[in-house]
Amino acid sequence: MTQHVLITGGSQGAGRATALKFARSGWDVTIAARKRDRLQAVAEQIEATGQKALAVPTDIGVEAQVNALVEQSLETFGKIDALINNAGICLTGSTLHTRTEDWQRLFDTNLWGCIYTIQAVLPKMLEQDEGSIINVGSIGGKMPLPAMTAYCASKYALTGLTESLRLELASTNVHLGMVHPGVINSDFMERAAFRGATAAEAESQRQQMEQA
Question: The domain that contains 185 carries what CATH number?
Answer without folding.
Answer: 3.40.50.720
